[in-house]
Amino acid sequence: MSPLYERIYAIVRKIPSGKVATYGQIARILGNPRLSRIVGCAMHVAPNDVPCHRVLNREGRLCDAFEPLGAQTHRLLLSMEGVECGENNRVDLSIYGWSGEIKAQRDCQ
DNA sequence: AGTATGACATAGC
DNA sequence: AGCTATGCCATAC
């Protein structure tokens, strides 16, 4: 497992329940905003202890390829965590967006 | 082993 | 302000 992946998983695990983060944010924490794709790829192979359902794209929406569980389960998971998702599985990032990235950055440093 | 593509985002035009 | 082009690393073929 690449150290980069470990870092990604570590960050994703730090996302508190009820909050959501974007690939770009995570990539920024990693040091390169353009690693967003890698983050996605990492999520694809992410172990079950990683809350990949809290990671959304820039639109505040998870792609239709939420693999093992499906988009439906994704919405359910977020609902259980107190995140209101719209009809299109849309999440308001201005409300549920994870503001702890700075803290994570500090922690990472 | 090399090429192509991908759970995305940013920058330039 | 919206669209096109480019970048990044890993996985798949």
Shape: globular
Give me the secondary-structure category.
mainly alpha
What kind of sheet is the major sheet? 2 strands, parallel
What is the straight-line distance between the termini? 21 Å
Helical amount: 40-55%
Determine the mean pLDDT.
Answer: 87
Unreliable residue runs = none
Q: Count of helices?
A: 6
Q: Under CATH, the topology is which?
A: Arc Repressor Mutant, subunit A
Strand order of the largest sheet: 1-2
Describe what you observe in this structure.
- The chain is mostly helical and 109 residues long.
- It has a single domain (3-108), classed as Winged helix-like DNA-binding domain superfamily/Winged helix DNA-binding domain (Arc Repressor Mutant, subunit A, Orthogonal Bundle), CATH 1.10.10.10.
- Helices cover 46% and strands 4% of the residues.
- The chain is built from six helices and two strands; from the N terminus they run H-E-H-H-E-H-H-H.
- It has helices at residues 3-13, 23-30, 36-44, 71-80, 93-96, 101-108; strands at residues 21-22, 55-56.
- The chain has a two-stranded parallel sheet.
- Helix 1 crosses helix 2 (23-30), helix 2 (23-30) packs across helix 3 (36-44) and helix 2 (23-30) packs parallel to helix 6 (101-108).
- 30% of the residues are buried.
- The mean pLDDT is 87.
- It binds a DNA duplex (13 and 13 nucleotides) through residues 2, 4-5, 22-24, 27-28, 32-45, 52, 55-58, 62-67.
